[in-house]
Amino acid sequence: MNEINLNRIVSVAALALIALPVGIACIILGFGMGDTPCILCWQERTAMVLVSLISLFIMRYGLKPKYIGALVLISVYGLWAGYRHSSAHILRDIGQGFGPAIFGVHTYVWVIVVFAIILLFAGVMLMLQGDKLKDEPAPWSLLNKVTVNTFLVIIVFNIVQAFTQTGPFPYIGQSDPVRMSFDKDKIIWSTGNWPSFDKFSVRGAFTIEKPDFADMSVDADTKASSKGDLDAVRNVTLPAEVEGVATGLSYNPQSELFALVTSDNWVYFLSKDLNKVLAKVRIDPAFSAEISNLAGVAFDGDNSVIVTADHKSFARVEYDPAAKIADYYANFMAGTDGVKELKRGRFETARAKYNYVGDIAYDAGKQEYLMVTLPVEKRNNLVLTRMSANDLKLNSEAVIDIDAKVLPQVTGMAVDGEQVYLLSNSGSQLLVVDANNQVVEAMALSGVSNPQAMTLVGEQLAIVDAAEGNNTVSFYNK
Question: What is the pTM of this model?
Answer without folding.
Answer: 0.76
